[in-house]
Amino acid sequence: MKIVNKCRIDFQYKFGSHNVINTIYSNEVVTNIVCNLLKINKSVDKKVANVFEVLNYRITIINISNLTVNNIFFKENLSIGVRFIYNSVYIDNIQMMDVNPNEGFKIGTIQPKKSITIIFKVVTIPKGKVMDIITDSNVIYDYIYNLDKNPFRLPINKNSYTKVTNNLFKQLNINYTFKMNCNNYHIKRIKDVLTKVNIIGTKIVGTPVRSTKDYIYKNMYNIIILGSVEYTIIYDYFNINNKNKIKEGKSISTEGFSSFLLAPYGIKYYKIQKVNSNIEAVSYNLLNTKSIFIDVTLLLSL
Fold it and tell me: Which of 37, 41, 154, 219 is the most interior residue, by most CB within 10 Å?
């Protein structure tokens, strides 16, 4: 559609004893009004998700005009909180290999009143406790307003929103019993117990833990976590042959542990960089003159 604007000025002036009325016109100003030929419908299967969950995006591009729309280019601006799953792009149920929505790709032509549906997947990755995932779909196409001139390149876009939370954690208790091996020495009191956690490695497995009844429904994977706890125990002790002479003793030992953490199956698309460990509490008791019982409350999180 075109809007043509032309200015008209009527004026009056004296020429001799008579008034003269005259009219002048300006040049024409033409503005081309571009009407949208395409419409975008966009949806995501989860409005609230956890980290390492897979989000499925569906974008339908509809030609709402009576014209053939050519040279269509699609691009998705993905948020920093997601990672594209390669080879997950389908156009009208046909898998498109080696294309990345974040880089963009050509779609081609859409006939009048027809549509094309694009489907792809991303996995959410940890970037904080709570994230707002906003993705922006951009479609660029040729708009021909004059057959004798080059077409306009017109963009249209559509956003979607998902809130992602990071609540993958596990609390566990690790027990250790320290025993004094020397028969002549007895422990009088515990002065302090220091602990240090070291995560040795992780492994992702698809085999469910049998006690997890809802594994099939939630489609979860297991992260096996291997680690160790270093105990530094400071105590007072005495020789049974000289009970009045109290000495300070120190013992350092390391004990291993293993645990698992359930995570959404999207974890298989992500390489775990770090498992966070935090010692929430350490309690200890003198069982007898030869043994100290230590209980460590440990919080593991991704």
Answer: 37
